[in-house]
Design a protein that fits this description.
Layout (H helix, E strand, L loop, with lengths): L2 H11 L2 H13 L4 E2 H8 L3 H13 L3 E6 L2 E6 L1 H12 L20
Protein name: ArsR family transcriptional regulator
Pfam family, one: HTH_20
Organism: Ancylobacter aquaticus
Length: about 110
C-alpha cells in the first residue's frame, strides 16, 4: 500500500453515504449483500447507490459478483486490512511507545 492509494481509499470513505454503505457491507460479512438488499438497508435511490458503489469498487474497497440477475456486493477484507495496517504500521515509531499513557503530554 502506498500513500496515494491510501489517500484515495480514505477519500472514498470520507463521504457519509459511502461510509454507511461500506460499514453495512462489512457487517454483512463474506456473503455480502445483493444490491437490492443493500439499497433497502441504506434507504437511498438505486442511481445514488450505484454512483457510490462505483467509487468504492474503483478504490478496491468493495467487490461485486454477478449471480444470474443478482449483483452481490462485498467488502474486500484484504484491502480493508491493508488500509488499517497502513494507518497503524508506524504507530508511535517516533515516540518509542515506551512512555506510559498516563505520562503523555496533554493535548491543549
Amino acid at each position: 500500500m502506498n500513500l496515494e492509494q491510501a489517500a484515495r481509499q480514505l477519500e472514498s470513505l470520507g463521504n457519509p453515504t459511502r461510509l454507511r454503505i461500506y460499514r453495512t457491507l462489512v457487517r454483512a460479512g463474506h456473503f455480502g449483500l445483493p444490491v437490492g438488499g443493500l439499497q433497502e438497508r441504506i434507504g437511498i435511490a438505486a442511481s445514488t447507490l450505484s454512483h457510490h458503489l462505483k467509487r468504492l469498487v474503483d478504490t478496491g474497497l468493495v467487490t461485486q459478483e454477478r449471480h444470474a440477475t443478482t449483483l452481490i456486493c462485498r467488502a474486500h477484507y484484504p484491502t480493508m486490512n491493508a488500509l488499517i495496517g497502513y494507518l497503524a504500521d508506524e504507530c508511535c515509531a517516533d515516540a518509542g511507545c515506551a512512555e506510559p499513557a498516563a505520562q503523555a503530554p496533554a493535548v491543549p
